[in-house]
Amino acid sequence: MLVDAGVLVGVMASGYLVGLFVFAGVLIGLLVGPPVVRGLMLGTKAATHFVLKTPTHELVGGIIGLVSGWVIALVISIPLLRIPVLGEYVPVVLGILLGYLGVVVGLRKTDEFSGVFSRSDRVRRSLKTGSEASPKILDTSVIIDGRIADITKSGFLEGDLIVPSFVLEELQHIADSSDVLKRNRGRRGLDILNRIQKEPYCSVRIIEDTYGELSEVDTKLVKLAKDIKGKVVTNDYNLNKVCELHGVPVLNINELANSVKPVVLPGEELKVHVIKDGKEQGQGVGYLDDGTMIVVDGGRRYIGQTVAVLVTSVLQTAAGRMIFAKPKGMERAL
Predict the structure, then answer these.
(1) Which of left, alpha, beta for 198 (phi over 0: left; psi -120 to 50: alpha)?
(2) For residue 196, what are the contacts with CB-CB under 8 A and spacing of at least 6?
(3) What is residue 322's predicted lDDT score, i.e. its pLDDT?
């Protein structure tokens, strides 16, 4: 059976053309595929992060608003379907516009909608005098310090206590250190955190977001505080300044401790136990119960004794307060 040469050439040409299209398709897929896949992965991650950060009641409100908008669009579109040409596009346009409007209204009116179905919610909102307490983010230094446990137990901190996963990792790293001092500090921090978590007087939440794109723990804390509108609890001076530069509220434990120390005025009489020499000749040094240092002029001869002194001046430094005094008998002699 003979085959026409022209037909054979046409078949071969068609085969070459198909092969060329297949090769071009594979090449375009190799070039365009990876960026598209990366874009889809980044978009999915961003969407997931947004959904996880959005409160559940807002998500529910948005979904209800979206469905309500689509239902209204469907009802309006039914009589318009009979219009030639225009009727084919009206349902799509109305679905997009009313769906978007429903989502916006649902997100912004979530609290009001929930109040319609719950009288107790309306009463509770009417009794509120201010906004809900913002979450408090604990950094590594304040956990190791340990005073945060007593402060939370006293009820001075309101709202959830947030412990980021990267702070836990830093604590674990310190607890596993070969240096004995660091290891003890890290273990103390873990014990304090475990103690707070078991107590019924506060709520401790672990946030798993590691902010892998950032390297410094302080930078991650600032970023987290901005994302959840929280306050950073610390006793780290440098972190305090960084937060202030970024406009993030800070609760400094050292500032709190200095604020609650009793006020001492010049001329006031105190009793202090002199324990060591001062820097200047004849000085003695003692401490109040809250740790405030008292420098007693002429107190060297009273080392090891408890003596009545009169305050001469009070100096406030970055490290805390320093009180200067003289023994009561010496003051009378002068």
Answers:
(1) alpha
(2) 148, 149, 152, 161, 202, 204
(3) 86
Would you say residue 290 lies in a domain? yes
Helix (H, G, I), strand (E, B) or coil at 213: coil
Domain boundary among 224, 239, 259: 259
Q: Is residue 124 part of a domain?
A: no
CA-wise closest residue to 283 among 305, 301, 299: 299
Whether residues 230 and 281 share a domain: the answer is no
CATH of the domain at 208: 3.40.50.1010
Q: How confident is the model at residue 317 (pLDDT cuts 50, 70, 90)?
A: low
Amino acid code (one letter) for 9? V
Strand locations in 30-169 (E):
136-138, 161-164
307 is written with which tokens? 């003596």
Length of the chain: 334
> How far apart (Å, rounded) are the C-alpha atoms in residues 18 and 54?
50
The separation between CA 109 and the C-alpha centre of its own chain, rounded to angstroms, equals: 26
Q: Give 235-283 pLDDT, tens digit per residue.
A: 888 898 999 899 999 998 888 877 777 788 888 998 999 999 888 888 9
Task: Report the phi/psi class of residue 282: left, alpha or beta, with left for phi > 0 and alpha for psi in -120 to 50.
Answer: left
Token pair recorded at residue 136? 């408090």
In a domain, 130, yes or no: no
Both tokens of residue 122?
Answer: 């309306």
Residue 333 is predicted with a pLDDT of 43
Whole domain around residue 36: which residue ranges? 13-113
Query: pLDDT tens for residues 169-207?
Result: 999 999 998 888 889 998 998 998 888 888 777 788 888
Q: What is the residue whose two structure tokens read 């120390």?
A: 261
* Amino acid at the residue 284: G
User: Residue 290, Cβ neighbours under 10 Å: how many?
Assistant: 12
Query: Which amino acid would we find at residue 125?
Result: R
Q: Are strands 231-234 and 250-252 parallel, antiparallel or unpaired?
A: parallel
